[in-house]
Structures are given as structure tokens and as C-alpha cells.
Amino acid sequence: MAQTEKKGGLLRKSSASKKPLKEKVVLMYDEIFTTEDPSKCNPRFWEELFLMKVNLEYLEGKLEALDGEELMKIKDNINCLFQHCIQALGEEHPIRVVNALQTLCALIRGVHQKNKSTSGFDIINMLVGFDKAELCMKNLMESLDSLLCAEGSESLKSLCLKLLLCLVTVTDNISQNTILEYVMINSIFEAILQILSSPLSRREHGYDAVVLLALLVNYRKYESVNPYIVKLSIVDDEATLNGMGLVIAQALSEYNRQYKDKEEEHQTGFFSALTNMVGSMFIADADEKISVQTNEAILLALYEAVHLNRNFITVLAQSHPEMGLMTSPTSPVPTTPVTPLGTTPPSSDVISSAELPLDADVQTSNLLITFLKYSSIVMQDTKDEHRLHSGKLCLIILTCIAEDQYANAFLHDDNMNFRVNLHRMPMRHRKKAADKNLPCRPLVCAVLDLMVEFIVTHMMKEFPMDLYVRCIQIVHKLLCYQKKCRVRLHYTWRELWSALINLLKFLMSNETVLLAKHNIFTLALMVVNLFNMFITYGDTFLPTPSSYDELYYEIIRMHQNFDNLYSMVLRLSTNAGQWKEPASKVTHALVNIRAIINHFNPKIESYAAVNHISQLSEDQVLEVVRSNYDTLTLKLQDGLDQYERYSEQHKEAAFFKELVRSISINVRKNLAFNTMSQELLLKEFSTIS
Q1: Which residues contact 303 (CB under 8 A, 6 or more apart)?
Q2: What would the mean pLDDT of 268-274 be, rounded to a whole number?
Q3: Cβ distance 155 to 684 under 8 Å?
Q4: Higher model confidence: residue 22 or residue 273?
């Protein structure tokens, strides 16, 4: 018997038969694509259609092949198909429901392809017709809501979420997607929360639910009242918020694990051997090849939760086992191809393992630690546009955290100590820190480490000014909290001071190049004022009196950099150029630093001359400092412990609009309906009563 092959909805025998046979479902689609009502000749047409296995490829292809005019001719049949799909969602037979959901996905995607062309007809009119749109969309949303909240099939829930993601991302700019008005009116917010609060549903659908929520929150968020924003801001159910936190933690943890695996692969591979042979000259190139796609969609969800919901802050510190340390299941895990940003859900083994009870032998972690590790990877390389956006979003999230009183309370809590292994960029002049030597410290130390790491590693020609400003602002906000609450943090402040001084040195060395693109005086003023904060209020939050002495030692030791900065800003503030005003602000801000240098330097020189010492040790300089504080006069500077609070709408609207657009395009591009293979669904619903 000749073997039968299937291709593009056609059935043909491998022997040379002249007319290929079409699948029945394809013949039925063809009837829909005529101007006649298909149910005229066959009253059971729609009933039979939803018992047929959907051919997504053929249906979408057929829609895309027609021009706008041709599509308008069959608009009544398209409307009819859409309405019958919605009716089928209320059927008892799951096969009909599955086929209806998949058909709706194909219809929405196919009609969207036409909408991008010059024909200019409206998607809603083409799918349902303006006259019936309100009722049809209400019925659709109610059916999806019922399916998502029902006890039934997980496969159906998955398809419902895929359909909703398809609806939301049908246009690049989601705020121009008029279909979403119906998703606003007929809210599915409670259904999303139910998925996140149930461990089983969360494991299966948490990722899609969180991404869907993040996108819905961004629909016309600046132009009108978005009910999803309002509702997300008042959620206070612990199980739901923890569920959302777990989904985000798992996705970020999966990224961290993939990066670590690639890093280890790199170190043990051929390139590593070659690098060892020829020295460290290739170290930067070697590291550039370690690339795992960033996940902006899940970061956006974290941002919206932190920014909108004060109760979510508690979730950041919620302890769970270190996900990377959990033992993998013995059954093989199917490999998934790498997909672009914001689309790859974490593998189910990571999700299930994270919900195991805490074990005394397993290192505990929390969402904040996972996020800090993720940030340390993403912020290493800001040359790539996606990583630059990711890095910026990480810093915006940290800004929101640094402003929150409760977040600061647990960041600085001495009873909540963690060992946080941040990723550090390979650099020729420093050795890689051993993971085992990391001390257990309050979480704020890891945040400060991350900021110091960024400051040290991004002084380059393509200077990321915006990220540096955000970085310094985060440090400032943390210091304001420490000053206000008199928190004496045991931290290696010298590393921060050294990084800040080197940053000033870099700005001066590259003055001409940088001034062509940036106002470097804004950043210089922020750095100088951080030192002013330490000088003026350091005695209230530095851990010991000797720490305050060390601050003075660093300023005196590196006085040449401050002298050079003063010369530069003085030169520019006395000229009538565009930088006159910003440079003069730095001149005034340097008054106390210059007072310290001018007061102590002669005393140190005198001490050296009297004791016949050509070069003083650190202890000797500190002795001079301690014995001459009483004759030092400093000016009190106002507003050092004040800052402007973060505001998304006024300053970040353009960034978020572009970010959401990018996420929408990628979610749509990678929406995988084929993961819901018909064979699996048929197996699940093998009995049709």
C-alpha cells in the first residue's frame, strides 16, 4: 500500500497520483473563505468544524495570502467563525474547546498580519464586527475567565493564557491595541491571581500569567485609569504575592543557572586552555562570548510589583532554598531552543524544586538575592541594547527598593545575613574572588558591592552616563536611610571611596570626549556630594571612629584628583560658556574637601620634616589627622540628605514605552502554540461523551 504523506493541509500518495487530496478541515476552511454561508448547504458545519483537528499553519497562511479587499468580502464568514469559536468555548466537550481556542489564536494572528498592510481596516471590525463587538468580547472574556478559574484541564488553561497573550501582543505598541479595551472592561485580574496563589497552577502557568499581567498593566497607563494597575496596587493576599515572587525568582534563577553553566563550559573548554597558554590578553574577548538572552518581560513584572504594591516589598526577603543548589530530577529534561528576550519560561523542574520545604543543609536565598545576582550578570556588558535596557531596569528597580522604608529595614537588618555571590567582570588587574571566602552580611552590603562593581568596570569610551547617575543615586538613598536611622553598617567603605575617586579621575581625563555627549558636572557634583555626606554626617553612620579617620586619609592620599577637579571646574565656571553654571556648582561643593586637604597637608609635611621621614606610613598620617581635628573648620552644607523621589510618568515614560514594545514583539514572535501538540491534547481528552 502506497505511503500517505501530509504537507500544507494536503494529503497525497507517494505514488504519482494527479490530484492531491485535502484534509477535511482544510476543505471546510476553504468553504469559509468564500462569500457563501458555509452552513447553508451543511447545517451541522460549525458543529463538525470544532471536532476537526485544527490546521493552524493553513488557516493563518490563508488569511495572510488575501489582500484587504478580498478579506473584506468574506468578513461575514470571518465574523461568523469568530462567534462560533466563542460559543464553542462554552461546550462541555473539551476537544471542541481546545479547537476553538486554537482557531481563535490563528484568526487573531492572521487578521493582524493583514492589519499591518495599507488596507487599514480595524482588527475588531474584521474579527467580530463593530455592532456585535461588545457582546462577543464580553462572552469571550467571561469564557476565558471561567476556564482559567475552573478545576479542569491544565492544557486548557495553558491555551487560554496563550490566547490572551496573543490578544495583548497583536500590535507592537500595546496601547494602540483597541481589543484591550474589552480586556480592561471584562477583567481577568482575579483569574491571574488565582493561578499565582495555587501551587499546581503556578507551576504550570505562572510564567505566562506574570508576563500577561505585566503587559496588561502597561496598557495606556499614562492616558487613562487602568484597572489592572489599580487592582495590582492593593493586592494584600500573602499567598498570591509570594506566588508571584516565586515565579519571578524562578525565571531569574534559571537565567543565572544558564549563565553559570556557560561560564563553566567556557573555563573548561579549548578557549580557556588557549588563553592560559598566551596569557590574559584575550580575557575580555573570551568573556564576551558568554551570552545568555536577557529576560526583560520578567524584570518588567518585578518592577511593576515593587513599584505599585507596597506589600510586595515583604516578598523580596521571603526565604526559599537556593534554587541553583537543588538536586535535579533523575528523569531527563527536554532541551528547549534558546529564544529571544522575555519569552523563555523556566523549566518546570526548577519551579517544582523551589517549592520544596527548607532544608537546614541547603543555603537559603530570596528574591532580592536572585535579582542582585541577575543584575550583576546583566550589568557587566551594556554595549548590547537589550542588556543596556535590562541594566537600566535593574537600577530602576533598585532605586524603588532604596527609597522604601520597609525594604531598607530588612536590607540593613543585622539578623538577616546572607552570602551573596555576585558575578564580577574579568579584569586583568584583579584576581577572581573565591566564592567560599564570602562573608555573611546584611543584604545592603551586596547592593553596595553591586554599585561599586558597576562604577569600577564601566569607565569606557561609550560611557553609560545614565546608568552611572542611577548608580550614585542608589548609594545616596541608602546613605540617607543610614544617616536618618543611625545605622552603623560594617562595610568596606574604602572600596566605595576609591571607586568614586577613580570615577572623578576618569571624568577629568576624558573631559573633551565626554563633554561632547554629556553634562559630566551633574555626575561629578553627585560624587562630590557623596563625600560631603560622609564628611558631614559620617560620625552618625560609619561603624567606628577609625572609619571616619580613614575617610580623611583617603581624601588626603588622593588629594591630587580633587585639586585637578577644582582646577577644571574653576576654569569652566569663570568662562561664559554653556558649562559655567553646572561647573560652578561643583566648585562650591568642593569647599569642605579642599578645607580638609589644605588643613591637613601642611600638618603632615611638618610632621614628616620634624621626624625626618621622607614617606609617612598610613598609621602616621592617621595620627596627624586625629590630633588636628579640633583646629579644622568646615562649612555646614544644606540638603545633603535630601533627594528627589523616583517618578515613572515624568521621567521614564519614553523608556517604558519602548521597553514594552520590544517585549510585546518578542512575546508574539515566540508564542508557541505547537507546545500544545494536538496529540497530547487528544490523549488528555480521549473520551468524548
Answers
A1: 393, 396, 397, 400
A2: 55
A3: yes
A4: 22
The pLDDT-based confidence of 335 (bands split at 50, 70, 90) is: very low
8 Å CB contact between 503 and 459: yes
Express each pLDDT in 638-654 by its tens digit: 999 999 999 998 889 99
Q: Which residues contact 111 (CB under 8 A, 6 or more apart)?
A: 63, 71, 78, 123, 126, 127
Please name the residues in contact with 402: beta carbons below 8 A apart, sequence gap of 6 or more.
408, 447, 474, 477, 478, 481
What is the domain partition of the chain in residue ranges? 24-186+658-688, 254-265+293-321+363-426+437-486, 492-648
Distance, CA of 39 to CA of 49 (rounded, Å): 11
Tally Cβ neighbours within 10 Å of residue 620. Answer: 15
* Whether the Cβ atoms of residue 595 and residue 567 lie closer than 8 Å to each other: no
Q: What is the DSSP code (8-state) at residue 179? A: T
* Of the candidates 210, 211, 209, 230, the residue with the CA atom closest to the CA atom of residue 221: 230
Q: Do 8 and 58 contact (CB within 8 A), yes or no?
A: yes
> Looking at this protein, which amino acid is placed at residue 465?
M
* Paired sense of beta strands 364-365 and 417-418, if any: unpaired
Share of the chain above pLDDT 70, in %: 82
Dump pLDDT digits (tens) for 113-138. 766 544 445 788 888 888 888 999 99
